[in-house]
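User: Please fill in residues for this 184-position structure.
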């Protein structure tokens, strides 16, 4: 077999391997797109930017609510932060989370335990269940807070009258091919 044939075959094998590897890697979910999908909170970018991006767009606070996103701050071991959706409130200091990319790369975990370990009981630090130990992990993580799925009010308060809207005027010319309003 000459060098050209061997090189062509080698290149073909390598490209086949790469084609099967890329889709497998694409299946790994990151926490931010997964949290966006399950919570409906439309924020993009690294998890450590979610808290700031939510300001003025979504209500934020320090109390967990079902459907809210728990926003973790950056740490040395977690430089881009983490986000997880609160799936259930167990008690004043314990919730269940649904999130991705925590215990194993790209893995999804549903209803895993997270507890408030802050000294003030204000959800500023948590410990989260970790599959590697089958219990709460040994580290505690600082939180920025919770981003609530309800959008923050923009201009008018709820219940405020809406401005009038003009739908059509008598002087408006009909569109070409448009049927009259009373047509079937």
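Assistant: Residues filled in for all 184 positions:
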């Amino acid at each position: 077999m000459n060098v050209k044939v061997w090189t062509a075959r080698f290149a073909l094998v390598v490209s086949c391997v790469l084609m099967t590897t890329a889709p497998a890697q694409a299946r790994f979910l990151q926490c931010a797109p997964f949290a966006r999908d399950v919570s409906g909170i439309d924020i993009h970018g690294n998890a450590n930017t979610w808290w700031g991006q939510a300001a003025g767009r979504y209500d934020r606070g320090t109390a967990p609510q079902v459907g809210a996103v728990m926003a973790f701050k950056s740490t040395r071991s977690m430089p881009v932060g983490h986000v997880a959706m609160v799936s259930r409130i167990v008690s004043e200091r314990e919730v269940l989370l649904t999130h991705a990319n925590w215990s194993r790369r790209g893995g999804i975990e549903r209803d895993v335990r997270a507890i408030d370990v802050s000294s003030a009981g204000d959800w500023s630090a948590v410990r989260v269940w970790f599959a590697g130990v089958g219990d709460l992990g040994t580290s505690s993580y600082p939180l920025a807070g919770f981003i609530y799925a309800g959008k923050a009010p923009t201009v008018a308060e709820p219940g405020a009258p809406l401005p009038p809207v003009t739908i059509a005027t008598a002087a408006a010319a009909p569109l070409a091919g448009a049927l009259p309003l009373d047509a079937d």
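For context: Residues 20-26, 152-158, 162-184 have pLDDT under 50 and may be disordered.
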